[in-house]
Amino acid sequence: MVDQSSGSTPVDKEDNWGYDLYPERRGEAAQAKWWQVALFGAGQVKTEKTVCERNVYNCFENSPLVKLMYSALKASGCEIDLRRHIACEVCDVKVSGGYDPRLNQIVICQNIARSKGMVQAILTHEMIHMFDACRHELNFKDVNHLACTEIRAANLTHCSFISAMSQGDASFFRIQKQHAECVKNKALASVLAVRPDVTKEEALAVIDKVFLKCYNDLEPIGRRVRRNSADMFRAYNERGNYGYE
């Protein structure tokens, strides 16, 4: 894992990648809350990091989706080194993870993502962004590119039909339409989180503009994964269709 507690580059207003949500990206050392010190001692932050790193390692060893994304990135010439490309850090409570295009790193928020399942979801989501940056040379300053990769990540990893229904974004009667609405809502929230200079109306217009093309692009997973199904195992077993080992 990479420690980003020092040496981070300040981010100017026009190049804001949401660093305000990731204090350690700004060079601020993570500090335990007073109640954490009282209950667990001063080592709570280090304990969270250790648990997070173990969960990350477990996902790379056992998660079909994470292993598939690893294979896809490796086949695209962007193999992941856990020590270089994954960082467990303390984040703002508004986020659970993120992708830093400047450093080509995935951030797992150790103070939020405490379970293996949550770490798996974050890793897969952010690895979609990493894949797009590697394979398609994304320009994250271009809101069209940003909207597209957020649509793809939400479509492939966040808005399973079951999770969409549990969040009120889908129904059995209009499942396909509502699934698309779930994807749009998730993409909108993600774009606004990292681009405070973009208004909600502007973000919605861009999402609508690129939606159909990006929504139908299922590479490298190849299918929309349904929660509590065998889809992730099917996707991993079918990885050879895309030329991934």
From TrEMBL:
InterPro entries: Peptidase_M76_ATP23. One of its GO terms (molecular function) is metalloendopeptidase activity. It comes from the Eukaryota. It holds the Pfam family Peptidase_M76. GO terms for cellular component: mitochondrion. One of its GO terms (biological process) is mitochondrial protein processing. The keyword Protease applies. Keywords: Hydrolase, Metal-binding, Metalloprotease, Protease. It is an enzyme of class 3 (hydrolase). Its EC number is 3.4.24.-. Belongs to the peptidase M76 family. This is Mitochondrial inner membrane protease ATP23. It comes from Daphnia similis. The gene is EOG090X0CKN.
